[in-house]
Amino acid sequence: LVKQMAVQHLSKVPSGTKGWTSYCIHRHFEWHSIVPTLNETLPVNPVGNLLLVQKIHCVTPGLSWAFTPGVTFQELPTAEHQRLGEVIPLCSSENETACLHRLDEFKGPVAIRARTPTSAGMSDIGREFNPNIASVPVFWKYLETNFDISKQSLMETQEYLVSHAPAIAKDNLDGQCTRGHSCKQISRIRLQKLIETNATAIIQNAANATKTN
């Protein structure tokens, strides 16, 4: 659908001239890997938590660009994804270009954002959840039907992330404050904690308990 919209919008650009437009979704899923060493009060969930989220700003997995031949990346507006709405004007009509289209056509979430220790900014990693809005059964059904992602595959991903947590955290820590990456002291502290603590046994015990029940 986004591709069809882009073709329609850019077809309005006069022949021989350059044009671009961008697209940003409202709603998306967030899958949160449970990392016990970062929040010991969280109940250990071997499959992680799935949330339906609506953001004012654009999230990277729900952001698309379209442009005519000849346009270079240097000619496109640049900003952090959460600030694109401040840098790029919102489109006021369906046929407008050089602006940001907020996509309301999609009834359900069309992107998934993973919150794991691989995140440079470590935003929302280890956050608390309201059990009434996290991991609602219909979410898992929607995820498997529309994204072909099963709870079993997420459990395997969760086990991998936790069993390799020290190495993942070290790699993330090495990349902190380098060009193009986040630079927050709190992230460095939390990553160092992951390096020093191994949560594999905690997750494995929870996974075994889940299989038994």
Sheet with the most strands: spatial strand order: 4-1-5
Our Rg estimate from Cα atoms comes to: 20 Å
Please count the helical segments.
7
Structural class: alpha/beta
Task: Write up what this structure looks like.
It is a single chain. The protein is an alpha/beta fold and 213 residues long. Helix content is 34%, strand content 15%. The chain contains seven helices and six strands. It has helices spanning 2-10, 84-87, 137-147, 151-163, 165-175, 185-196, 200-212, and strands at residues 20-25, 27-32, 49-54, 63-67, 100-103, 112-115. The chain has a three-stranded mixed sheet, covered by helices on one side. Helix 4 runs antiparallel to helix 7 (200-212). The longest helix has 13 residues, at 151-163. The mean pLDDT is 79.
